[in-house]
Amino acid sequence: MQVDKVIPVLRIFDYAKAIEFYRDWLEFEVEWEHRFEPGAPVYIQLTKNGITLHLSEHHGDGSPGIQIFVWCTGLKTYHEALLAKRYTYGHPGLEKAFYEAWSMQVIDPFGNKITFNEKI
């Protein structure tokens, strides 16, 4: 077996809050959205610099509160950019982790966590 990509599915409950958090604050690009019919739950694909996430309002598509661990570079600059946006619901810290990395965790409005890490 060879894996090409792993895409986590994150459970969401409010489309507007998800867009505000992922697109407007974290600067993910919405690649596509799908609803079976108007008013039905939404399923969204987002990407940013090699990260792909699926967000779903569908019951059974994941449980809130999962954690995603991301290795990256340029974390301090990204951290500063996020703080400069003054997002009401998020002010992540940047700390040195025990595994010799800078670490920043963000928590979405549904309890899902993304920890961005850069080796020191």
Q: What's the Cα radius of gyration?
A: 15 Å
Main sheet characteristics: 4 strands, mixed
User: How many DSSP-defined strands?
Assistant: 8
Helix tally? 2
Strand order of the largest sheet: 1-4-3-2
Mean pLDDT, nearest integer?
97
Proportion of beta-strand residues: 35-45%
Structural class: alpha/beta
Shape: globular
**SSE order, as H and E?**
EHEEEEHEEE
What does this molecule look like?
The mean pLDDT is 97. The chain is globular, with a radius of gyration of 15 Å. β2 (29-34) and β3 form a beta hairpin. The chain has helices at 15-25, 75-84, and strands spanning 9-11, 29-34, 43-48, 51-56, 67-71, 95-97, 101-107, 113-119. Helices cover 18% and strands 36% of the residues. The strands form two sheets. It has a four-stranded mixed β-sheet with strand order 1-4-3-2, with helices on one face. A four-stranded mixed β-sheet has the order 5-8-7-6, with helices on one face. By secondary structure, the protein is an alpha/beta fold.
Write a concise keyword list for the protein shown above.
120 residues, alpha/beta, 4-stranded mixed sheet, 2 helices
Write the layout of secondary structure elements.
Blueprint: E1 9-11, H1 15-25, E2 29-34, E3 43-48, E4 51-56, E5 67-71, H2 75-84, E6 95-97, E7 101-107, E8 113-119
Parallel strand pairs: 1-4, 5-8
Antiparallel strand pairs: 2-3, 3-4, 6-7, 7-8
